[in-house]
Amino acid sequence: MPRTRGSVPRSRPCGPSTRGRARPIRPRPGARTTTSPPPPPIWEEGYLTGELRGEVYADVPPALKRWRAQGRETCIFSSGSVLAQRLLFAHTNQGDLSGFIREYFDTAVGAKKAPSSYARIAAALGVVPDGILFISDVVAELDAASSAGMQTLLCARAGPAEATPPACDHLVITTFDQVFP
Fold first, then answer.
1. What's the predicted TM-score (pTM) here?
2. Tens digit of pLDDT for each residue in 52-89?
3. What integer is the mean pLDDT of 83-109?
4. What is the distance between the alpha carbons of residues 89 and 119, in angstroms, rounded to a whole number?
5. How far is CA 134 from the centre of its chain?
6. What's the gap between Cα 61 and its chain centre?
7. Does residue 118 belong to any structural domain of this protein?
8. Domain assignment of residue 173, yes or no
């Protein structure tokens, strides 16, 4: 191929121009089109074979049971996919907790730091926002949920002695034992 100064190849046409004549490729009418489902993520196999387990704190199962006995429903909003959430709660170090979860939400409803996401969740559940308690360890998420009208709790689990909860306008808990005891 001819070269110009330096090492950049000179371009040249390789056939008649199709500029302005190209059309999108569409399947023939009546043609069978199949797409294979994407392969499952590697972690899905890990959960299903028992090699992976979701780690939850020991106070989570009793809290889920207590809340159910009180007539409360638990939903999850995570940046992880709904599939990942379902697998995690079905395969935890505390057993299968998936039966305690009414609904799973992921970022398909919106960003976790956007109030509109929490409004969409409330609408999807058919519940007014102030009838929902949102618990998180991320203040920006709590701020968004609060802006949407939800009640909020900051979960600041015990950790290193120097760790202190951030200053914020949310009530702070350190264990789920403190929530609807």
1. 0.74
2. 899 999 999 999 999 999 999 999 999 999 999 999 99
3. 96
4. 24
5. 15
6. 21
7. no
8. yes
